[in-house]
Design a protein that fits this description.
Rossmann fold, 2 domains, 6-stranded mixed β-sheet, 4-stranded antiparallel β-sheet, 20 helices, about 50% helix, about 15% strand, binds adenosine-5'-triphosphate, organic anion transmembrane transporter activity, ABC-type transporter activity
Amino acid sequence: MSNKEKSVHVGEECFQQHGPTLMFSNIKYCIQERVGLLCKKGPEKVILKDISGILKPGMNAIMGPTGSGKTSLLDVIAGRKDPAGLRHGTVFVDGRPVTNDLRLTSAYVVQDDVLMGTLSVRENLLFSANLRLDPKNHSSADKQSRVENILEELGLTECANTKIGTDFIRGVSGGERKRCSIGMELITAPSLLFLDEPTTGLDAYTANCIISLLHKLSRNGKTVIFSIHQPRYSIFEQFDQLTLMHKGDVVYAGKADKALEYFSLLGYQIKAFNNPADFFLDIINGEAESTLELPATGKPHETLITIVVCVLVLLELICATDAYTNVTRVPGPRRRESEREAVLNLLRTPQTSYAQWALTVFFALLVGLIYYQIPLTLPEGLQNRSGAFFFLVINVVFSNLGAVELFIKERSVFIHENANGYYRTSVYFLSKIGADLLPNRIVPNIFFSAISYYMMVLERPHARMHKIDPFKNQNIRLVLCCSIQGEMFLQGQGIDYSRWGFWQNQVALIGISSVCLVVAYIQLRRIKRWK
Ligand SMILES: Nc1ncnc2c1ncn2[C@@H]1O[C@H](COP(=O)(O)OP(=O)(O)OP(=O)(O)O)[C@@H](O)[C@H]1O
C-alpha cells in the first residue's frame, strides 16, 4: 500500500498527508563555550554523543531530565540547530539525507509561543494562512475555510474571536494559546510536526488535552516528534516511540510500551502504582536500584539501530521511491502578500500608538502652557524661545528612543517566522519601518510641534507683516526688533542661519538616518536563525 493510500481522510485537507519516517545516525553535536570578558574560545562541550534512532509516523516522545539534550536533538533533526556544531552524523527523511528544505516542509512549534498578542485566535491563523499559502493555489475563501477547519479541529471555535493577549490585555488561556501555536503550523498541512516541550507551563488537564490533540493528529497519519520533561501516566500511555536521553546520550530508543520490559531485563522493577515516566527518570538519575548494571555505552540499541538505518537507506536508494515528495512543500514567501499582511498586522498594535499619541498631546499642552504666548519683548522673548526650543528638541529625541528596541522586542517572533518561511528579511524590515515610522514617529511629532507651536505663538515675523491689521503695528515693531536680536543671538551661538545652514541639518539628519537603517538591516540579516 502506498503512502498516499495509507493517508487517512477525515474531511480536512490539512490532515491528509502521511508522515515520513526520520532516521538520525551517529549524531555528534558540540558547542564552543566562550569564556572571559573578551569571549575567548573555551573548551568544546559535547551535547549529543554519537546518537542514532528512528522516528516513525505516530507519537514520538524524546524524554529525559533537564539538560539531557532533548531540545538539542529535536533541533538538530528539525534543521534548527547551527550546523557549525555538527561534528558528524546524518538525518534521513524517508531514507534521503535531509536538506535545508526540511525547515520549510515541516512544522516546528517552539516552547514559548510566538503569537501576535493583539490579534484574535482566528486572525493569527489567517495571518499564517495568508503568508504561507500560495495565492495561486489557494483563494481567499479556501484560506478562510482552512482556518475554520483548524479552529474546529483544535477546539478553538469558542475563543476564535478572543485576542491572544499581551501585557496589557488579558487574552486566551495557556492551553488555547498552545493550541493556536499548533494551529499556526498546521495551516500548511505539514506531515511532519516538531514540538519543543508542548506541555511545559500547562496544568495537568490542559497538558493532557494538548497531548491528546497531538495523538489525534498522529492517528491521522502525521509524524509527531516532541520533547517532553516528565509526563503523567495518561500522557505517557499515548506515546508510540520513546527516546530516553541522559547527558547527550540515548539510553533507550524503541517502542514506548516495551520500555518497562527492557528495563526490567536490566534488573529494574517498577513499584506498584508508580508512573513509568517517573520510573525511567529515576533510573536515569541513578535513584532506582538494580541488581544488574546499565550497558557501559548507555546505548543498548545502537548497533541494531545503525544496522536498521543502513538497511533502510539502502532499500530507499534501490527502490528510489518518491516518498519524500509526500512531505508537503510549503510555498516560498510571496513578497507582495507578505508585505500587505505584515503592514496590516503591525499596524494593529494600537495600544502602544494610543499611549504615545496621548503622551504627545499631554506634553505638547504642557510645554505650550509653560511657554504660552511667548512675549516679543527682550530679554524674556529670547530666553523663553531658547528654553522652548530646547524642550522641543529634547522631546523629539526622547520620544523616538523607543525606535531603538523596534527589532529587539520582536526578535524571537522574527526568527521563528522567518525560519518558518513566513516572509523574507527585507519584507519584514520594510513593513516594520513603514508601520512604525508613520504612526509612532511622524504623526506624534507633527501633533507635538503643531500644538506647541501655536500655543507659544512661534510665528515667523514676515508671516505677521503680511497681515494688514493696524492693531498689530506694535507687534510688528517688536517682531522686527526681536528678529534682529534673534539673528545676533544665532551669530553669537555660531549657528549658520542661512538657507543652506537650515538645509545642511536636514541633509545630515537624512544621512544619519539612512546609515542607521542600513546598519539595522544588515544586523537583521546577520541574526542567527539557529538555536
Ligand atoms: N547554544 C548553546 N550554548 C550553550 N550551551 C548549550 C547550547 N545548547 C545547548 N546547550 C547545553 O546543552 C545541554 C543540553 O541542552 P538542551 O536544551 O538540549 O537540554 P534539554 O534536555 O532540552 O533541557 P531542558 O529540559 O532543561 O530544556 C545543556 O547542558 C545546555 O546547557
